[in-house]
Amino acid sequence: MTLQGLEKLRKELEYLKNVRRSQIIEVLTESRKHGDLKENSEYHSAREQQAFCEGRIQEIESKLSHAQVIDVTKIIPSKKVIFGVTVSIDNLCTKEKRKYRIVGDDEADFRKNLISINSPIARGLVGRKEGDTVVIKTPRGNVKYKILKVEYI
């Protein structure tokens, strides 16, 4: 996991424990005042939210306790694609240039150009160097990319 991913999980955990839990408890308390709990949909909805929240808290705490954090800014740059780097590539078929950061599964967000280390593109790029040309098997078929730049930021 990257430092940014670690911080994001910590913020989510803090929000769930300090804000969301309190909100759910308020809804539960208020919905109990409405009488019969068997037919109280507001109460049952709040209980489901509480279960989800507590499950997510446990999941995040487990991930944080087992996380191996990698700070690429402390790694001596070698122009080699590894976990945590930002890599600029050129699709040689479409001439489209893209820039991705290779991150952990929990951090991945394709819309923000954060790709999972387990994605086909990342797996095809890891271990390669600037200037290398790689063929990556994607759901749409094989695509040829040229690695333009590797940044340790």
UniProtKB/TrEMBL annotation:
Keywords: DNA-binding, Elongation factor, Protein biosynthesis, Transcription, Transcription regulation. Residues 1-69 form the Transcription elongation factor GreA/GreB N-terminal domain. It comes from the Bacteria. One of its GO terms (molecular function) is translation elongation factor activity. GO terms for biological process: DNA-templated transcription elongation; regulation of DNA-templated transcription elongation. Residues 77-152 form the Transcription elongation factor GreA/GreB C-terminal domain. It holds the Pfam family GreA_GreB_N. InterPro entries: GreA/GreB_C_sf, TF_GreA/GreB_CS, Tscrpt_elong_fac_GreA, Tscrpt_elong_fac_GreA/B, Tscrpt_elong_fac_GreA/B_C, Tscrpt_elong_fac_GreA/B_fam, Tscrpt_elong_fac_GreA/B_N, Tscrpt_elong_fac_GreA/B_N_sf. Necessary for efficient RNA polymerase transcription elongation past template-encoded arresting sites. The arresting sites in DNA have the property of trapping a certain fraction of elongating RNA polymerases that pass through, resulting in locked ternary complexes. Cleavage of the nascent transcript by cleavage factors such as GreA or GreB allows the resumption of elongation from the new 3'terminus. GreA releases sequences of 2 to 3 nucleotides. Belongs to the GreA/GreB family. This is Transcription elongation factor GreA. It comes from Candidatus Westeberhardia cardiocondylae.
